[in-house]
Fold:
Amino acid sequence: MRLTLSCIGRMKSGADKDLFDRYVDRARKTGRGLGITDVNLKETPESRAQRADERKTEEAKVILQSLSAGARLVVLDENGKNLTSPAFSDKLENWKNEGVPEIAFAIGGADGHGPEILDRADLKLALGSMTWPHQIARVLLAEQIYRAMTIQSGHPYHRV
Structure:
């Protein structure tokens, strides 16, 4: 199974990107022993449409077109579910055990997600009740993916 972080906008170099890259690298290494073949990033430029609804529609279309057949879609959304780290880990592991070929995580642009992508989501996930900058949301998601893998492997990284 592959994990793909499909993000609107590009992450600039600096401390945020370094931390993101560190967690993705850790996830790739830990995931190999768990049947995770890759953890990758797809960045799409923000839409330049004039209206927010048009931007969200264009950005959703790009993300949806990039999904592979049989992929599960996890959409980061402020109105999504707040899962504990063990519950998130269980969700990923269950999908892996079902033979899901890919889990795609969608982080939208500044306007959020359009209804097309929200309707297609297999899981709407919130990273808490607060609003986070997209760069920090990427870091938080990458860390939780790594944490999920350490929970599955029995590594002591996750402590209660």
Notes: The domain at 2-153 is CATH 3.40.1280.10 (Alpha/beta knot). The radius of gyration is 15 Å.
